[in-house]
Design goal:
The chain is an alpha/beta fold and 413 residues long. It has 2 domains: 191 residues, Rossmann fold (3-Layer(aba) Sandwich); 112 residues, NAD(P)-binding Rossmann-like Domain (Rossmann fold, 3-Layer(aba) Sandwich), CATH 3.40.50. The chain is 27% helix and 26% strand. It is built from 11 helices and 21 strands. The strands form 4 sheets. The chain has a 7-stranded mixed sheet with strand order 4-18-19-17-16-20-21, with helices on both faces. It has a 7-stranded mixed sheet with strand order 10-9-8-11-12-15-14, sandwiched between helices. A 4-stranded antiparallel sheet has the order 3-5-6-13. Strand 1 and strand 2 form a beta hairpin. The radius of gyration is 22 Å and the shape is globular. The two termini are 31 Å apart. Bound molecules: zinc ion. The site of zinc ion has 8 residues, from loops.
């Protein structure tokens, strides 16, 4: 455990953080993640050829790893990454596959809508603003709830006209490049799903949204919960793209700092341990109980997770003389491999039910993706579940096909 106060320099395209993004408190190093690989590294078939040339593979792999460290603020209970890679490197030129909203994401939106209904079932909004509106699915679900709908997301940069629903006002930019005070109507519903954790300065963003919202605005923000991650030993969910790891305690501290009044929170454990928090302007009268984790607790849970990964890899190794498939071509696969201690080179392929992924590879893993219809009988095979967040659907499918062995690398479902 060391104080990270000395790190505040910008080194190349990596920005090193020294103070807590939420309360400006000092940060402790909670977990070391040396040479953590990048995720979202799908690539097209020809790149697989590179893996036949070890030199080329090693240099590609070397480009895709960055030393990482998870920091923790004891003052407010917030987790954050030390090394923030520039967005153009994280989401940039190597990107060749963007998944459409998955079944999990759609179910996650059901959860979000249920939270909205719980606090405002009868309310109709003048203007709903979605920060990080992605494929506009959530704004679509809000069509009957708001007169005007506004979406902000840099993924739409330069192709705003391609949106199917022209009644949505769309800004393909970062939120700080949008003049929120110039909107035709002050937003009275501000929603944000799985976006805040990507931002370097989440507090400033929430503050500016609060300042440009209507007086009676309702805010519903959903983030992957750090409490849920720790409870479920999901350290494979710590990766370069998530800069912020909110606990309920740190979210409440954030509200306190920006003049937000806490109204309600709900957890969705089966979608990234998600936590939705509802708030308005004003001061919180009574805050709910929020667990504060000790750094030693975080570290002992990480050791437990590592032990689980070791055991799963040892179990997998007992079967690698036969036919072994992975199931589920997750974007997070490089990080799962990192913790398991494998590049998945021992797999015949990673099977996936999405035809759009058939034939893809990962530019930092020597394994190819194959549509599940290409393999017939799995009865003689061992299958490792590689999309751990989709275990339920994959398991249902596998149990009907009944491979010889199914290995699930985690113990909590
Ligand atoms: Zn803090």
């Amino acid at each position: 455990m060391s104080n990270q106060g000395e790190f505040s320099t910008r080194r190349g395209s990596i920005d090193q953080r020294e103070r807590c993004s939420i309360c400006s408190g000092a940060l402790l190093a909670a977990i070391e993640l040396p040479a953590l690989p990048l995720t979202d590294t799908f690539c097209l078939t020809p790149v697989q050829e590179a893996f036949k040339q070890p030199e080329l593979f090693r240099s590609a792999a070397a480009l895709s790893i960055v030393d990482q460290r998870l920091l923790y603020c004891q003052a407010c209970g917030h987790g954050q990454l030390q090394n923030l890679i520039a967005p153009e490197q994280l989401y940039g030129s190597h990107y060749c596959f963007r998944s459409s909203a998955s079944a999990t994401a759609r179910k996650g939106t059901d959860f979000f809508m249920a939270v909205l209904d719980e606090v405002a079932s009868d309310r109709r909004f003048r203007c709903a603003l979605d920060l990080g509106c992605n494929d506009l699915y959530l704004l679509g679900r809000l069509a009957s709830r708001a007169e005007l709908r506004v979406g902000i997301d840099p993924v739409w940069g330069g192709r705003e006209d391609e949106r199917a629903d022209k009644s949505i006002l769309l800004f393909g930019k970062n939120v700080d490049a949008v003049d929120l005070n110039a909107l035709p109507e002050k937003p009275d519903l501000i929603v944000c799903r799985h976006t805040l954790e990507h931002l370097v300065e989440p507090r400033q963003v929430v503050e500016s949204l609060m300042n440009s919202a209507a007086d009676d605005a309702l805010f519903i923000f959903e983030v992957p919960g750090f409490d849920g991650l720790l409870e479920r030993l999901r350290f494979d969910q710590v990766f370069h793209q998530h800069a912020q790891y909110f606990t309920l305690a740190s979210f409440l501290r954030l509200l306190d700092g920006v003049g937000g009044r806490y109204l309600l929170h709900r957890y969705n454990y089966h979608d990234w341990g998600a936590m939705a928090v509802v708030f308005a302007r004003g001061k919180t009268a009574a805050q709910p109980e929020a667990r504060r984790w000790l750094p030693a607790e975080i570290q002992s849970r990480y050791r437990l997770f590592q032990a689980q990964m070791r055991l799963s890899k040892e179990a997998l190794d007992l079967h690698t003389d036969g036919i072994v498939y992975g199931y589920g071509a997750a974007q997070m696969l490089p990080v799962l491999g990192y913790h398991l201690g494998t590049d998945f080179g021992e797999l015949v392929a990673v099977l996936d039910d999405d035809p759009a992924k058939d034939g893809l590879g990962y530019w930092n893993l020597p394994v190819k993706v194959m549509h599940s219809s290409h393999v017939g009988d799995l009865a003689q095979s061992t299958v490792l579940i590689t999309a751990v967040d989709n275990v339920q659907g994959i398991m249902q499918k596998l149990l009907s096909q009944r491979p010889r062995h199914i290995i699930y690398p985690l113990s909590i479902i």
